[in-house]
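tool=predict chain=A
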Amino acid sequence: MTTLGQDKFTPPQHQGVALKRKMLVTSALPYANGDIHLGHLVEYLQTDIWVRFQKMRGHEVHYVCADDTHGTPVMLRAESLGITPEALIDRVWQEHTRDFAAFGVAFDHYYSTHSPENQALANHIYLALRDGGFIEKRSIEQMYDPERSMFLPDRFIKGTCPRCKAVDQYGDSCEACGATYSPTDLIDARSVVSGAKPIRKVSDHYFFKLSDPRCGAFLRQWALMDGRLQTEARNKLKEWLGDSDASADNSQASSSDGQAIVDVDANASKLADWDISRDAPYFGFEIPEAPGKYFYVWLDAPIGYYASFKRYADDRGLDFDAFTKAESPWEQYHFIGKDILYFHTLFWPAMLHFSGFRAPTNVFAHGFLTVDGQKMSKSRGTFINAKSYIDQGLNPEWLRYYFAAKLNASMEDIDLNLDDFIARVNADLVGKLVNIAARCSGFLIKKFEGKLAVSDTEAMAEFGKAWCGTETLAQHYEHREFSRAMREVMSLCDAVNQYIDQNKPWELAKQADQQDRLQVVCSTAIRAFAHLMRMLQPVLPNTAQLALDRLAVGQRGWDSIDFSSDADLPEGHQIAAFQHLVTRVERKQIDALLEANRSEQKAASPESLKPSNASTTRTGVSQPNESAQSDGNANLPPFIGIDEFAKIDLRLGRILEAQAVDGSDKLLKLVIDLGEAKPRTIFSGIKASISPERLIGKLTAVVANLAPRKMKFGVSEGMLLSAADESGQVSGMFLLEAEPGAAPGMKIR
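tool=predict ok
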């Protein structure tokens, strides 16, 4: 059973039974200045899996998000493309929604921060904060581009580091020595926009007074005392807020909603006021009663969560205030990357709380994505765009499963190890999960018209003992311990496959007096498979739907996972023939994906100068050079013509018998039905790859017109086709299989 730590939220309970909950869930907003890549998808897939699980439990969950559209990078990129910012963000919105849909990220509403709802909410929150004494106007000195007549964000200024003298460093920090500084400290500073030397110029700016003692007191209670955040996040916030562990002797103050807050010594706080304004020209919302001043993008971006939900709520007749106002009893969760923790656990909850809205129930932060143990790299091809993954024909549910198998509730980074990706997907999804249906459904279709018998009750009881159980698995999902959940599901897969191996349905099928037992064994395995697919619905939504549709399963909620009952798949229930649910990952597919994404880094341009951490949102990532050509065909054999290919007679054959050949380390003797009057005997060198008993019943590809070959052990009357890597290692050979519905003798065209 899961032990709940201090950093794990416990769902509401009533007399030991979980209540039906209402939740607003968001993922961080992707910036409208770049493609969605696999680093982004860590977050959106984690959130989507969690939301799908909650909906399976019967809770009311609303998952919203939006493109983050404002700021200088968007403005300058649109200018460089010769289009309006509105045209740019509309185009990027179309691309982002396409990519999310391809990976099964099922937002209830996906919007844009450049919306009337967001402007109205931003104005409302700003004015409430101003009236509460949390906004202050100050004159500050900034770097100004005299040629472009614009103030420059720190990342649009470059020069020589004042500490280590490294050249070409940004205006806020040095990538060579790690020093942080003011852009006015840079040596030989220049504007990235025009190349001009910036000058200093004074301007009035508006600040959110995060240093106000009321903010510190509230945040120490919300972030440190209430046990909302992950341990790593709380430890980080203690650096900014001070450690509240010794606060019991301090006096208490009352919050705006009457709740007592521990008032820790403000001297322990390291909170600084936040500049929330920018000068024209700027693409964003103008600040009320401040002509020529615009909200800094980081102010209106998180408000975009509420704006997206407002539009969604209005369209569907939901009560927006019931979810968002300070007194709301409902839950609110934000999934973010750890790099934006500061904004989401300090500014965002304080802004909400002191403007009359509710602070989040929890903010869940995750780590970054590395590929093969290193930062994502364009030169290595590991900076992989979502669209490229889809365009190369890779199954998005491979990645959903792999991320789920690696993710937990911590903020640690996760690694996409490509060799492990291939091995885990092939072993778990193909070799363990869908193999259950592949091994048993065919017997039911062929011999029993797809009708189920009663279950082997003893086996079903053993299956129930082979894993953690429904409620513990639910707790793993609830607490975002997806890797634990996947291990438990695969443990159950192992138990079901072991049951199949022990009962050998391929042998039962040959014995006239064992047909009833054959039907029971296969029915038992199919019912267990149905439960496995229910458990994996949050992770593999498309595969699960296809499988459960073929099984004609009605109940698909979490409560329908019950190994003690055949009620949902009763005796006599009829299933349909299975399509091939999940195919194997081939190394050549991964190599092609890397090649497609490999290109030289483009020269830096103004719209791509924001930090490009792999997992963060709000990044301006320069695009791969689309004109770069692959040299991946250099080692292929010479081309042949269609006439030469047509000489090969490729047909489907069903393996009727398979046995090892005495005296040979490599050969299996196979008897194969090619739809002819008499089955053929074929000797195949796949002994090291596939055990004979697992070949029975497989429908595979055969070269039918290969001249018979007399061998030491007999005459081989054809050739089986198999796949292997370029090394030709027999341990890496894989049999080609046809989808259900195909028949022996069919010609492969």
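DSSP finds 20 helices and 29 strands in the chain. The first helix runs from residue 38 to 56.
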